[in-house]
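ASSEMBLY PREDICTION REQUEST
Request ID: AP-0331
Submitted by: J.K., bench scientist
Number of chains: two
Total residues: 578
Priority: normal
Notes: Please return the full assembly, not individual chains.
Input sequences:
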Amino acid sequence: MGRRLGRITALYRDGFREMRLGRRLWKVILIKLVVIYLLGRCFFPDYLRVNFASDKARADSVLAALTRPAR
Amino acid sequence: MDLASTVQWARAQFALTAMYHWIFVPLTLGLSFLVAFFESIYLSTGNPEWKRLTKFWMTLFGVNFAIGVATGIIMEFEFGTNWSNYSWMVGDIFGAPLAVEGIFAFFLEATFFAVMFFGWERVGKGFHLFSTWMVAVGSNLSALWILIANGWMQFPTGMAFNPDLARFEMRDIWAVILSPVALDKFMHATSSSFVVGSLFVVGVSALFLLQGRHLTMAKRSMAVAAVFGLISSLFVGINGDESAYSVAQRQPMKLAAMEGLYDGAAPAPLVLGGIINPMKNPGDAGSDFLAVVKAPGLLSLLAERKLGAFVPGINDLAFGNPARQIVGAKERIASGRIAVRELASYKEAQARGDVQAAAQSLAGFKTHESDLGYGYLKNPLDAVPPVATTFYSFHLMVVLGTLFPLLFLLVLYHLYQGDIERCPWLNRASFLFLFLGYIASQAGWVLAEVGRQPWAIQNLLPVGVAATPIAAGNVKLTFFIFLTLFTALLIAEIGIMARQIKIGPED
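STATUS: Completed
Returned structure:
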């Protein structure tokens, strides 16, 4: 079990260490994830979660939209 | 606040993110299987040239995967912010498939991807091949869950609407998973992605032949990709026909728009090509097309599996056709408005504790529930999708989809003849077709999504009610941020890919 775990760890450790193109790709992935995370935090609040305190209030808000006649 | 403007920007933003995301996905789905084929051949022949070839395509697969990964997450942000009513209503249905997809993708990427890229010299050949196959099968199954969610929006099934919580609640998970629309979508989206992957391999290999580099590798890659592409493109044709039949049965308005069919006909002709009359509106007397070529009776066969069968047109579906027992949007709007009114009455009766009135309103609502979405439309024309966009995207997809098997056949013929490197015209065409594959794939999604307007959920929820009442300015700003971000990612993808292709397979 211990040896197997060691081999798995070595697979990842050596794999990351020996990457060439992969290094650049990981940079792209990390930059992208940070940008997406920041965009999500700054511009994409969960509207119902932020504006209503309970599930009942959220359901009432959606029901209000559903029972508004044709606009 | 101008909600109409918010809805349009929210739609544009979702279309932008979905279309950019779909640049990366089909290549992942298609190339993963091709890499698995290449490695299987390496293992069965023991020829190191196949290993070199596998590693080359695996690198391009890795570049595409790395650039594309997580671009779909943005759409989940958009659900909560721009489409909060919709998001709340479908949470119970989509929660399970999307969670399964997330867990699936995480374990797949953390285990088999690592073995596939890091494990060449560290694990046995058999286990490495197994990992490559798992990546291919897993990536495609991962797409299944997303397509189940999309299929449900096009054909909501296995659920019941809870009027107290304003949610669609899952009643039968198997009806959702095994929905014929979801399965058609899965078959069509994955097999067409196999075609995109095959066109990519054929196109890049053709470039090598034009440059006179890596000739053996290019011809071997081409042979496998052309066989896979030919089989896949024939399968795309078969399941595409099945998809069109399914659309005819469940979304007849989409089919009518796909064909630019304003007045139903028996037998109905299939439009082979044409120019839509841009001045034509439903109910007008003007001609449907400025120029058109039709195949008599074929649409009846495609839509109803019967020669001579009646296929309803946009006017029949918008205004009704009593002679053909077609209930039009006009009548369904009246029914939907009753559903909206009864839902409001139910809510009021619940609030004042009037159990009897609540039960009566609920019964009234249930009677008209299937037309709920129509209750939010102002007039029958609101039920008609943009006809020109739907028509052109459908015909572009079909025309290109018909050319792909011909290209694969030509490539296989010249490979068999042994003269493919002496056919620069074919190699140039193959390289061009690499891009046409993407165009066909995107056109398919434009058809699927624009053609089902105005619905977020077919017949139940129009986009106007699904959207969040927020200022359009915010959505507009993030639209342009995403446009910049995705364009940068696309440039990165093309740049890194081009560099790797220039380097070619490494020894």
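REVIEWER COMMENTS: The interface with chain B takes residues 7, 10-12, 14-16, 18, 21-22, 24-26, 28-29, 32-33, 35-36, 39-40, 43-49, 55, 58-59, 62-63, 65-67, 69-71 of chain A (CB under 8 Å).
SIGN-OFF: pending second reviewer
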